[in-house]
Amino acid sequence: MNFLALLLLLAVLSPADAVAFTGHQTLDWPQDCGVAPFYPSSSAERIIQGSEARPHSWPWQVSMQAWVQGSQRFVHVCGGTLIHPSWVLTAAHCFSGGKMDNVANWRIVLGKHWLNQTEATQRVHRVKRIYRHEHFHYPHLDQLNNDIVLVRPVHDIPSSPYVHYACLPTSGGPALKPGQLCWVTGWGGTQGGEENSTLSNVLNQAQLPIMDFTTCQQEKVWGDKVSPTMLCVGFRDLQGTPAACQGDSGGPLLCQMGKNEWEVHGIASFGPIGCRAENKPSVFTRTASYRSWIEATRIRDFFFY
């Protein structure tokens, strides 16, 4: 940021904005975020085996779809989370390779339950800009640190009964605890196995526990492939238990922290081949570790575009 831009930034930001953000009060975050019209089923069903979510009970769920030249159509590539009228949160690895970072090849679809059907509730938005974390280096480096992207639509996305915003984790709020149950949602593969390429036609959900990070760092679990900016979610013994899968990438890990608002605490990043394996929980980018990056990216977008 040059000196003139810095002066402009200091002039525009109020003292409350210039200090550490508190809750959802900074930079016009939606005040009614995280409120869904329906509550999910309380049973811990399997996302791999296709536990269908109640339609539109996760109104911030995004389908990030890319144009496939050969089939001349858009296809679901990754999930995402609507966190603001101007911003979708998803994973950086979804935009790796070829022309995947070209905004013209992407669209944002919301209000969906049936992935392969056109629904009256769905809303489609074209992409204006893609902000991939500047220190995301996969596949040049065999790691998925900083697996986070902010996507800006061409036009702001209004709220409706079928489209709404999830909250970001509250700054200074309670931390996630090992064993705490949160929810994963997406249209990812429902069969598992080495060759998993079949997406679910309906939005699925699973309730999974937060794994103790020390356990996740054990050599027989993920070892040095995980860092403190990640969350490990799931069970050590995965025989017949839920797990995120291909197509769920970029989608949210949603938790309630002692109140009714749903906060997106994680972004689905990686897991074992075949989606499910013993001692291999699903790994999510820890959203709370990137609050400053999210705020800085929004400011950069405001000043330079």
UniProtKB/TrEMBL annotation:
Domain Peptidase S1: 47-299
Keywords: Disulfide bond, Hydrolase, Protease, Serine protease, Signal
Assigned GO CC terms: extracellular space
SMART domains per the UniProt record, alphabetical: Tryp_SPc
Signal peptide range: 1-18
GO molecular function: serine-type endopeptidase activity
Stored Pfam families: Trypsin
A GO BP annotation: proteolysis
InterPro entries on file: Peptidase_S1_Elastase_sf, Peptidase_S1_PA, Peptidase_S1_PA_chymotrypsin, Peptidase_S1A, Trypsin_dom, TRYPSIN_HIS, TRYPSIN_SER
PANTHER family: CHYMOTRYPSIN-LIKE ELASTASE FAMILY MEMBER (PTHR24257), ELASTASE-1 (PTHR24257:SF10)
Protein name as it appears in the record: Chymotrypsin-like elastase family member 2A isoform X2
Source organism: Phascolarctos cinereus (Koala)
Encoding gene, per UniProt annotation: LOC110215486
